[in-house]
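Something for you to look into today, if you have time. Could you write out one complete protein record for me, on any chain you like? Leave the record below and I will have a look.
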Amino acid sequence: SVNGASMGGVVRVAPGGTLDIRVEAHGTSPILWIELLCLETASATWRTVRRESPLAFDFSFDVRETFEGDRLYYVRLAQRDLVEHRRPMAWSSPVWVETSATRKSPAVGG
């Protein structure tokens, strides 16, 4: 979650505001690695905010960032144990973070 908004949600924040990010994952086998990724939408630049290798079934962490522009966050992970010779992976839906001052009006009509 980002400032309390869960996967698929949108958060509006003033420039310079705080982003409190909570990542929580529950695997069916130990989690080999887990990453929090961020796309800075203005520059189309991806960055890894944090990567961990917990080797645990359940894992969580918190991150705090300063908001400086529109972006999205999502989590991806891989589990240790193979299933039919393949590495199980999972991706979250993103959370979009937008500048509160530039809120666009919804489209009307159709």
Q: What stands out?
A: Residues 39 and 46 are 5 Å apart (CA to CA). Strands lie at 10-13, 18-26, 31-40, 45-52, 58-66, 71-79, 89-91, 95-99. The mean pLDDT is 92.
